[in-house]
Amino acid sequence: MSATTTTRLVEHVQRLGEEHPPLRLDDVDFTVRDPRTLEQRYGHVLDYMARVELEVDRNVLELTTMLPDPPEVDVFFYRDVWQPQEIQHGRILDELQVRLGRSNADADLDSVGAKLKVLGALAHLGAFQDVVRMLYYVTGMATERSAVLAYNLLHDGVREMGETAIADTVIAPIKRQEPGHYAFYQLSARGLWAELAPWQKWLVRLLRRISFSPVGANNPEQLADFGDVMRTLHIDEDSDFAAQIARVEMELLWARDKGLPVPTYVTAAFREALELARARSAA
Q1: What's the 3-state SS for the chain?
Q2: By its UniProt entry, which InterPro entries does this protein fall under (predicted)?
Q3: Is 128 left (phi over 0), alpha (psi -120 to 50) or beta?
Q4: Average pLDDT value for residue range 28-51
Q5: Mean pLDDT of the region 126-155
C-alpha cells in the first residue's frame, strides 16, 4: 500500500480515536415508556446486534490468526479504536435488552474456526496474506455498512414508538461511530486492490464468493435470526439494502460484470436468511 494511503489511514484512525471515544454506560438514559411493546417488537433485534458487537473479542482473535504479520495501521485500528468502541456498543445494547426482561446475549468470545486457521497458515506467505487482507477489508465494509443501515432503520422505528430516550442516547450514538469504521475498510480496500496481481484478484473473488455470509450469521440458526431481523426492519433480499452494503465491493471485485447491481452471493444469502426465518416461524 502506498505511503500516501498509509498516512491517510493513520490520520483517519487517530481522528476516530480522538473524536469518538468509547461510549459510557453512565451517559445512557435507559428510560422506556412501554417496555413490553419495545421488547416484543425489537427485543430480538437488540439481542442480535448486541451479540454481534460483543463478539468483537473473538473477531480480534480471528484477525490475529488470519493475519500473522498485519500492517501497523491495521493493528492500531482494530486494537486501539474499533475493539474498544464495539465492545461498548455491545454492552449498552445488552444492558438495554436485560432491562426489557430478556437474557444477556449469548456471545461467542473465543472460538476460531478451522477454515480461518488454514487461512492463517497460508498467510505466512506474503502474497497470500495480501489476499486474506483484502477479504478482511471487503468483509469489514459489508459488516459496517450493514450496521449503519440497520441502526438507521432501528432508530427510526424506536423513535416512531415514542421511545426517544433509547433512540437518542442508545442507538444514535452507536450509529454515529460506525461510518468511521466503514471508511477505514473502504480506503484500505481501494489501496490494496490497486496493488494486487491478477491471480490474487482472481483468488479474492473466488474466496469471497464461497465464504460470504451476512454479519453475525455463522450457522443456520443465526442465519434465521438474521432473517428475523430483516423482516422486523422491513428489509428484503432484493432491496436497496443489499446494493448499499455491496456497492464498493461490486465496484472493485466485479467491475467487469456490468449491469449487475449486487453480487449474486449477497442476494442468495439474504434470500436464504428470510427463507429460514419464515420456515422457523411456520414450524
Answers
A1: CCHHHHHHHHHHHHHHHHHCCCCCHHHCCCCCCCHHHHHHHHHHHHHHHHHHHHCHHHHHHHHHHHCCCCCHHHHHHHHHHHHHHHHHHHHHHHHHHHHCCCCCCCCCCCCCCHHHHHHHHHCCCHHHHHHHHHHHHHHHHHHHHHHHHHHHHHHHHHHHCCCHHHHHHHHHHHHHHHHHHHHHHHHHHHHHHCCCCHHHHHHHHHHHHHHCCCCCCCCHHHHHHHHHHHHHCCCCCCCHHHHHHCHHHHHHHCCCCCCCCCCHHHHHHHHHHHHHHHHHHHC
A2: Ferritin-like_SF, RNR-like
A3: alpha
A4: 97
A5: 93
Is residue 238 scored above 70 in pLDDT? no
Residues near 83 by beta carbon (within 8 Å), at least 6 away in sequence:
56, 57, 60
Residue from 137, 196, 188 nearest 8 by CA: 188
Helix 83-99 to helix 35-54 angle (10° resolution) is 150
Q: For the full predicted model, state whether its pTM sits above 0.90.
A: yes
CA distance 70 to 133: 8
The set of cell numbers assigned to 92 is 449498552
User: pLDDT value at position 91?
Assistant: 97
Q: Counting Cβ atoms within 10 Å, is residue 136 exposed (0-12), middle (13-18) or buried (19+)?
A: buried
